[in-house]
Task: structure prediction
Amino acid sequence: MVLSDRQNQILNWVQQEDALLVDEMVAHFNVSSQTIRKDINLLAERHLVRRTHGGIAPLSSSENLPFDHRQLLNGDAKGKIAAAVTDVIPDGASVFLGIGTTVEYVAKALMQHQNLQVFTNNLTVASIFGGQPNIRVRVLAGKLRHQHYDLVGEETLAGLRQYYFDYGVLGCGGLDEAQGILDFDPEEAAVSRVLVEQSRHTLLVVDKHKWGRKASARVHNFSSIDQIYTDELTEKQSQLLKLHGVKITLCH
Result:
């Protein structure tokens, strides 16, 4: 069952807060408390939020949203981000496509490229290229994370360090103005960290809702990234990224 636009907005909002109260949501959406409670019931039943006294809270800072839901969340923005990224990746390049559903949108947008060498630990990305003989795909070894359809661990890190990619495309769990790029799982963060080190050009693909999300595993500071592709930034966020030397591409 796909969430309604309001339910998606609630889900994005709560990821950026310690907790949300019913009264806050009633005022923001200008609907009845009964309507908001129905939304809360649905989100809680699908294990997308935690119930609290008088409202809801996000899942823990070490636990991301379920994979199947993340695939649908903010799909329009992810599609526009992916299209912009593929414009800068030439035919014949070597590309590592990392963890995350936005990265999967990039994979779909790259399907018409010729002679790409794609490396990944993302099993969904690998399956996207299954019918594309013009694209060579190498899947790194590692430990399967069943809920996320990707591979992590020491084998994955060792495999990454054997290569130096033209482009490394990574998503993340959250963005913090002081800490930089964050993820939910330390093993996931470790893969992204090595990916940055092993890529000539590092491209971060994130939608605006990643700012302020309560992820707890640190990946890197912003200065490690060459370019960010996103749908929207505040003036403060833009200034911060420019201070760290990050090139910004807004994808509307």
Summary: The chain has a mean pLDDT of 90. The chain has ten helices and 15 strands. Residues 75-88 form the longest helix (14 residues). Residues 80 and 251 are 6 Å apart (CA to CA).
